[in-house]
Write a structure and sequence with these properties.
Rossmann fold, 12 helices, 7-stranded mixed sheet, about 45% helix, alpha/beta
Length: about 290
């Protein structure tokens, strides 16, 4: 049964998300049902590049174990090409549990990653720390930036409230969120997103208990020194618009709507050749503010 589910997932992913599937294959993370990891995989859940810089960017991968829809090597290359003087730290949520599960399978993931971020902030010694992430990696950027006292947040399509992605309302918003029922397959991709989000949330609630899942909105709203955040979202993707509305009233949150109707603004900017320059611009602007 598990093998059948894996094969079905791979077939559907290749049809509906060809670019994403290609990136997942490049990252070696094409199996969302995987729950057994080698020692090497566990130890490689984070990668550190210490360039002796005064700025460190902490990059949090999303559910596909990708950074803004890209494998580590490609995203790292884009950041390097910006000419920014910075240290880089890449975190991977190999268990696909929204960073709530540690790489070794223990249910202390939030504590594990928080401690690791604090440890690296101390050892790298930068005075300016940026959290960057996409999808639930964007959630992680908000959460750990607040918990660890980082300076800035850059998030692409952050899922800051998972429950906004599940239920009948979210499903119908996904159904209606399309220019047509053909073309690029946007309609089917949106349906797949809604189903995937609901499956992930149910798995987390069953494994962790609903009361133990982070409340990113509350964490950010109640933070005494709220980090400034730039959030990129698709103006035509209704569920992401709903997410952005949760923090729209906060003066520290700068929302950037892009003319896009999918849950991957990072890929949209990359296709336009603007991803690296956009990130560099945000970091330079934010560090000067």
């Amino acid at each position: 049964m598990i093998m059948i589910r894996k094969k079905l997932f791979q077939i559907v992913a290749r049809i509906l998300f060809p670019d994403l599937a290609s990136s997942m294959l490049a990252e070696g993370s094409f199996d969302p049902f995987k729950n057994s990891f080698s020692r090497e995989e566990i130890e490689n859940c984070f990668m550190i590049e210490d360039n002796g810089a005064d700025t460190t960017i902490f990059c949090f991968a999303g559910g596909a174990v990708l950074y803004a829809g890209l494998p580590t090597f490609e995203f790292r290359k884009i950041l390097k090409e910006t000419g920014l003087s910075c240290n880089l730290v890449f975190f991977r949520d190999i268990r696909r549990m929204g960073y709530h599960m540690a790489p070794d399978g223990q249910l202390n993931g939030l504590e594990f990653y928080e401690n690791k971020v604090r440890e690296l902030m101390s050892s790298l010694g930068s005075t300016y720390n940026v959290a960057l992430g996409a999808s639930h990696g964007g959630s992680a950027a908000f959460y750990f930036a607040c918990r660890c006292g980082m300076d800035r947040i850059i998030a692409f399509n952050p899922v800051i409230e998972w429950r906004k992605y599940v239920g009948l309302k979210a499903f119908f918003l996904s159904v209606l969120n399309t220019r047509s029922f053909t073309g690029q397959g946007i309609f089917l991709r949106n349906i797949a997103m809604a189903i995937g989000a609901q499956t992930l949330l149910k798995k987390m609630e069953k494994t962790l208990g609903r009361e133990n899942i982070w409340d990113v909105v509350r964490e950010y709203r109640n933070h005494p020194e709220r980090p400034h955040a730039t959030v990129f979202y698709g103006q035509k993707y209704r569920l992401d618009v709903t997410q952005s509305s949760l923090i729209r009233d906060l003066p520290e949150a700068h929302l950037v709507g892009l003319p896009y109707d999918d849950h991957n603004c990072g890929a949209y900017l990359k296709q336009r050749g603007e991803l690296g320059s956009t990130i560099a611009k945000e970091i330079k602007l934010l560090s000067a503010s």
